[in-house]
UniProtKB/TrEMBL annotation:
Keywords: Hydrolase, Virulence. This is Phosphoesterase family protein. GO terms for biological process: phospholipid catabolic process. GO terms for molecular function: hydrolase activity, acting on ester bonds. Pfam families: Phosphoesterase.
Length: 385
């Protein structure tokens, strides 16, 4: 047994320790989190009787698309703006939390706000130099790759015994990222390789990248099809990122595709039906499709939900307090198609809502007092009657 423990990765030992502590003090694994100080401790979830018994969550992000261009009558992605909208609930006051791209993805899995290097999309894959922690659970400092002391959603899921995977198109080699403090060579697409590390938030947490099983969790998109074959092989959280062409970032693309929302539309038509027809989704699933941010800080840096200056960035949106209005659609057996919600949400709301699904504490800004989390305006099928 001692030899087996010695061979465990730092991440595995970390997760095992959480479970052992939870058993000893009888509070449950979902209340145990590491903290650099009391200010870092996450807020416990409140009663969530309005949350349906969802067991499988799917998240897809497209790139740099404001609400009107994505969801308007003239959208170049009619499958998203019309077909999928008719199957789900449209969140028409959903906002990004930052500019540029990278901090929005990080927000969705950790509740951490941006800093200067993150706002610049982490051109250098730099280690985060932490100088402190302030409420609500914000690591103070600069840099991109957070130390193991900064928690994220995957730590919580594993401590609870839940499963997760990140599916990254064009990633090829699992868990692919630059060497620490090296220049990120995925900032521009190349023919045959349009993977972008900055759109893969898992690569910015040392507890994930330093784990021996990272290559089992952060994989190429091609693995999704086989994983969807049964509910038992589908992770509880599937976080899916298209490549720089299919997420709409580039237009035109290096391989000659049109890019923009036109390529988003084609990609979604290929992959979303696979998700919607999967046993996991049909039994107890939820799919969220949104964008990381609006078209850019010069076009829309608006915010919602009480977002304000953070300890590392006075203006999270560079020219304003947020990432602009982007919208989102939520599909689930617990959602009525063709409906909408005018409630204000952002990426921290999404994190908090996923944490509520899995009965986890709120991390970082997901624990902001008064922050809206998905309620019966989203889970509106009358499932609980």
């Amino acid at each position: 047994m001692e030899l087996a423990v010695i061979r465990m990765s730092n991440r595995s030992r970390y997760v095992l320790a959480l479970l052992m502590i939870a058993c000893i003090i009888g509070l449950g694994a979902d209340l145990i989190r590491p903290a650099a100080s009391d200010a870092a401790a996450p807020t416990a979830t409140s009663s969530t009787a309005y949350v349906p018994p969802i067991k499988h969550v799917f998240v897809i992000n497209i790139e740099n698309k404001g609400y009107d261009s994505t969801w308007g009558a003239n959208s170049a992605a009619p499958y998203l703006a019309q077909t999928l909208r008719s199957k789900g609930v449209l969140l028409n006051n959903y906002y990004g939390t930052a500019h540029n791209s990278q901090p929005n993805y990080v927000a969705q899995i950790s509740g951490q706000g941006p800093n200067d290097q993150m706002q610049g999309d982490c051109q250098v894959y730099s280690a985060f130099a932490q100088t402190g922690t302030v409420a609500p659970g914000q690591a103070v400092g600069q840099g991109c790759v957070f130390p193991t002391s900064v928690p994220n959603l995957t730590d919580q899921l594993m401590a609870r015994g839940a499963t997760w995977k990140g599916y990254m198109e064009d990633m090829g080699t699992p868990c692919r990222h630059p060497a620490l403090n090296a220049v990120d060579d995925t900032q521009k697409a190349r023919v045959g390789d349009q993977y972008a590390v900055r759109h893969n938030p898992f690569m910015y947490f040392s507890s994930i990248t330093g784990a021996a099983d990272c290559d089992q969790h952060v994989v190429d998109l091609g693995q999704l099809s086989s994983d969807l074959a049964s509910a038992s092989t589908t992770p509880n959280l599937s976080y899916i990122t298209p490549n720089l062409c299919h997420d709409g970032h580039d237009a035109p693309c290096v391989d000659g595709e049109p890019g923009g929302l036109t390529s988003v539309n084609t990609w979604l038509q290929t992959w979303v039906p696979k998700i919607l027809s999967s046993p996991a989704y049909k039994n107890d699933g939820m799919l969220v499709i949104t964008a990381d941010e609006s078209d850019g800080p010069q076009s829309d840096a608006s915010a919602c939900c009480g977002e304000g200056p953070g300890p590392n960035a006075a203006l999270p949106g560079i020219t304003g307090l947020g990432g602009g209005r982007i919208g989102a659609v939520v599909l689930s057996p617990y959602v009525t198609g063709g409906t909408w919600s005018t409630t204000s949400y952002n990426h921290y709301s999404l994190l908090a809502s996923v944490e509520e699904v899995f009965k986890l504490p709120y991390l970082g800004y997901a624990g902001t007092s008064g922050l809206n989390r998905f309620g019966l305006d989203v889970y509106n099928s009358g499932w609980n009657k």
